[in-house]
Amino acid sequence: MLIAKVYITLKKGILDPQGKAVKGALHSLGYEEVKEVRVGKYIELTFEDGDLSLLKDKVDEMCKRILTNPIIEDYTFEIVEG
Hints:
This protein has 2 helices and 3 strands. It has a single domain, classed as Phosphoribosylformylglycinamidine synthase subunit PurS (Mth169, Chain: A, 2-Layer Sandwich). The protein has helices at 17-28, 52-67; strands spanning 2-10, 41-47, 73-81.
């Protein structure tokens, strides 16, 4: 079994109101050393064993077509044994 771990973040320069709210909450709890918070998404996709090269291409295609908004989001992924 293979697991694709997809990490999605807002592109630099895109406002992150959720990150700003989390930063404010952390500061109110005394964590003043936190300078910036960016909130993203994490998605896990599980596959049967297969050709790793083909799987990487498919996950990349999924990210571009449906899992992310390429206008405002960046993504990275890794594939690990599950």
